[in-house]
Specification:
Its cofactor is Mn(2+). One of its GO terms (molecular function) is manganese ion binding. This is Arginase. The chain has an eight-stranded parallel sheet with strand order 2-1-3-8-7-4-5-6, with helices on both faces. The chain starts with a strand and ends in a 6-residue tail after the last helix. The chain contains twelve helices and eight strands. The chain is of the alpha/beta class. The chain has a single domain, classed as Arginase, Chain A (3-Layer(aba) Sandwich). α8 links the parallel β5 and β6.
Length: about 300
């Protein structure tokens, strides 16, 4: 890493229905992320949080027709896209702190315009590949990757005035253990490289990451890592809103991020879905900071 890491907070909670994930960026800061990265010898610029629309609690808690909070998500995505694009123009490494996973629409929209063939590693319990007609909840945090691949509501698909942001063949899913029927069908139809937890159990996280690196390195000119803390087992990371048992361990995730660091493949990163309101003593934010340390090259000796 020979770039300044630019921390950009995206304190948005509009993609799902649990309050608190908007506090995630500051919980991660409180857990010491800037100090942790600087201790490795990497310069850090914390650009604070982007301005997001005001949270209307009455609307947020109401039953809404169609896609929930779509106007707020469009506004947030455009602002975040601009902030991340500017970071890349300054030759920084953008590290975006969410917020729920819908913020990836904005972050990856700002990143992909700087690459001809962006790859995306989606480290998550979920595929986030739903489209509106297949989503009974209307929660957009279950749709961002499909939106970025060019399917879904046109207002979201065309954030930053271009689409798609990522090709299905440049996506790798890691940690999958909760996929809807439409998502499974889309993955099969587009032959998306997918490592379910059964596959992680079978071959081990080392082989999973090595296969991911080999799959992406020859056909992409940049790779974005979008890490949802619910990829980890909720026993270890309880402070997240969509928990699914049987996830990746903290140690497996450390090793995965160490391997990704050594690959020199990753050019930008999201860290999302930390919710301190449902956490224990900010443990999940602290775990997230530890993982970021491994990703940026922290070693014991």
């Amino acid at each position: 890493m020979n770039k300044t890491v630019e921390i950009i907070g995206a304190p948005a909670t509009f993609g799902q229905r649990k309050l608190g994930v908007n506090l995630g960026p500051d919980a991660i800061r409180y857990a010491g992320i800037e100090k942790r990265i600087k201790a490795i010898g990497i310069p850090v610029k914390d650009s604070g949080n982007i301005a997001v629309p005001k949270l209307d609690l009455e609307k947020f808690n109401s039953e809404q027709e169609g896609l929930r909070n779509i106007e707020e998500i469009i506004e947030t995505s455009n602002i975040l896209s601009d902030a991340v694009s500017t970071s890349i123009e300054h030759n920084h490494f953008p590290l975006v702190l969410g917020g729920d996973h819908s913020i990836a629409i904005g972050s990856i929209s700002g990143i992909s315009k700087h690459y001809n063939n962006l790859g995306v590693i989606w480290y998550d319990a979920h595929g986030d590949l739903n489209v509106p007609e297949e989503s009974p909840s209307g929660n957009i945090h279950g749709m961002p990757l499909r939106v970025l691949a060019g399917d879904g509501d046109e207002r979201l698909v065309n954030i930053s005035d271009y689409s798609p942001k990522v090709k299905p063949e440049n996506i790798v899913l890691i940690g999958m253990r909760d996929l809807d029927e439409g998502e499974r069908r889309y993955i099969k139809e587009h032959n998306i490289k997918t490592f379910t937890m059964a596959e992680v159990d079978r071959v081990g996280i080392k082989q999973v990451i090595e296969e991911t690196i080999n799959y992406l390195k020859s056909k992409t000119d940049g790779v974005h890592l979008s890490l949802d803390v619910d990829a980890l087992d909720p026993v270890e990371t309880p402070g997240t809103g969509t928990r699914v048992l049987g996830g990746l361990t903290y140690r497996e995730s450390h090793f995965a991020l160490e391997l990704l660091h050594n690959s020199n493949l990753i050019t930008s990163m999201d860290l999302v879905e930390v919710n301190p309101l449902i956490d224990h003593n900010n443990d999940t934010a602290e775990q997230a900071v530890g993982l970021v340390g491994s990703f940026f090259g922290e070693t014991l000796l």
